[in-house]
């Protein structure tokens, strides 16, 4: 069965323009999110992220509608297996890199009290679901697939895949760097997450495994925070 990875004629007409529009939309979303003034409302932190999510989700929806990457949205049970396994593995790697065995469990921070409605919105919904889905569809659908298809005809599948993986994972790190100064370890962790998700999309041709890896990776931190709060 063929999919977006094996189109003999390479990229669809307009893929380059779609990529450019996507990057402009993402940068605009970042800038608007950063300059929005805080209203002091308890929901302001989540509301301020709406321009960013729109800047990622809108070009992803446009890309899927116009570029039609065949097979990218297929679902297989193995996607669940990969998502759970790799998500947990990456969290363990993160723990090793940060020496988590020598540190206490993370705890729920001051977001309206442990497990309040605000905490559920900011942590579980925003960080655990919305952010991973929006980011994966932008970085692993728009960026990864477009760069792969633009390069594949001229440089071959392996080189195109490597370039797409590096660009996708690198852009993923830059997005997080735009909102907080990252340590070297944090940057490595985010690059590994982006690279693993990109490799999974390239190897399977499907995006849902990568989405689940990202969801599991974020959800495990939320779970550890809950454990640390109860233990404390």
Automatic annotation (TrEMBL):
- Domain named CAAX prenyl protease 2/Lysostaphin resistance protein A-like is located at 119-219
The record ties this protein, via InterPro entries, to:
Rce1/LyrA-like_dom
* Key words of the record: Membrane, Transmembrane, Transmembrane helix
Q: Does the keyword Transmembrane helix apply?
A: yes
UniProt-recorded Gene Ontology molecular function terms: endopeptidase activity
Q: Which GO terms describe its biological process?
A: CAAX-box protein maturation
State the superkingdom.
Bacteria
**Bilayer-spanning residue ranges:** 18-37, 43-65, 155-175, 181-203, 210-231
Q: What is this protein called?
A: CAAX prenyl protease 2/Lysostaphin resistance protein A-like domain-containing protein
Q: What is the lineage of its organism?
A: Bacteria, Bacillati, Actinomycetota, Actinomycetes, Micrococcales
């Amino acid at each position: 069965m063929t999919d977006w990875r094996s189109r003999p004629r390479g990229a669809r007409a307009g893929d380059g323009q779609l990529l450019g529009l996507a990057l402009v939309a993402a940068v605009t979303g970042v800038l608007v999110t950063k300059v929005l003034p805080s209203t002091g409302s308890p929901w302001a932190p989540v509301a301020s992220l709406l321009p960013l999510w729109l800047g990622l989700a809108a070009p992803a929806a446009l890309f899927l509608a116009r570029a039609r990457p065949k097979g990218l949205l297929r679902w297989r049970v193995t996607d669940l297996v990969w998502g759970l396994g790799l998500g947990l593995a990456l969290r363990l790697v993160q723990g090793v890199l940060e020496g988590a065995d020598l540190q206490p469990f993370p705890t729920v921070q001051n977001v309206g009290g442990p497990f309040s409605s605000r905490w559920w919105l900011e942590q579980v919904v925003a960080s655990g679901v919305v952010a991973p889905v929006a980011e994966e569809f932008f970085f692993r659908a728009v960026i990864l697939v477009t760069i792969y298809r633009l390069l594949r005809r001229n440089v071959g599948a392996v080189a195109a895949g490597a370039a797409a993986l590096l660009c996708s994972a690198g852009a993923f790190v830059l997005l997080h760097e735009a909102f907080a100064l990252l340590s070297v370890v944090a940057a490595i962790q985010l690059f590994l997450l982006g690279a693993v998700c990109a490799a999974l999309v390239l190897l399977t041709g499907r995006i849902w495994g990568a989405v689940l890896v990202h969801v599991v990776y974020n959800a495990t931190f939320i779970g550890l925070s809950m454990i640390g709060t109860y233990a404390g």
